[in-house]
Amino acid sequence: MKPKAAAPSPAALVPEGIDEAALMGDLRALVRSARERIAAAAYATQTLLCWHIGKRLAREHLQGGRAAYGKQILVTVSRELTADHGRGFSYAELARMIQFAEAFPSEAIVVTLSQQLSWSHSAARRCAATPKASSREPTNSMRILTNSRR
Questions:
Q1: Which segments does the entry list as coiled coil (predicted)?
Q2: CA torsion angle for 18, 19, 24, 29 (degrees, to 10)?
Q3: pLDDT tens digits, residue range 64-120?
Q4: Where are the domains of the chain?
């Protein structure tokens, strides 16, 4: 039986004249860049999703002074979406989505914003970006919900 030959060292496999460190640096940069683009796309999609949820809840269920119904629908939506999709749909989070949709009524603005900031950044900065929020006046939908809790 023939003895096994020792495996060649990694350095022996690299053809002469190739800068292995530069190659690895370039490959790492490609992976890092792709991951950053994936994260940016995910953040933009999440921000737009939260805006659409907030817009839908504000438009369909919280307008018209139906405070008790508005509060109950948020409790129900929170419970159902959390069961279906996991965390991120608490009552407080849904209320922030509504505030976000009311602070930025134009989808075009949200699309532009979502390409620059994640949902958590957008939610945190929405108050500073709108005169209504910066004057500490609650939005119509949030006023309805707050009054229903008293």
A1: none
A2: -110
A3: 566 566 778 889 999 999 999 999 999 999 999 999 999 999 999 998 888 877 666
A4: 34-149
Write down how long the chain is.
150
18-32, 112-126, 133-147 — which is least confidently predicted? 133-147
More confident residue, 43 or 137: 43
How many separate helices (H) and strands (E) can be counted in the chain? 8, 0
Q: Are 121 and 105 in contact (CB under 8 A)?
A: no
Residue 18 DSSP symbol: -
Q: What is the mean pLDDT of the chain?
A: 77
3-class DSSP state of 80: helix
How far lies 12's CA from each of 8, 39, 98, in Å?
6, 38, 61
Q: Please state, in angstroms and as integers, the Cα–Cα distance from residue 2 to each residue in 5, 7, following that order.
A: 9, 15
Handedness of CA 8, 14, 17, 21 (dihedral sign): negative
Among 77, 78, 131, which residue's Cα sits nearest to residue 104? 131
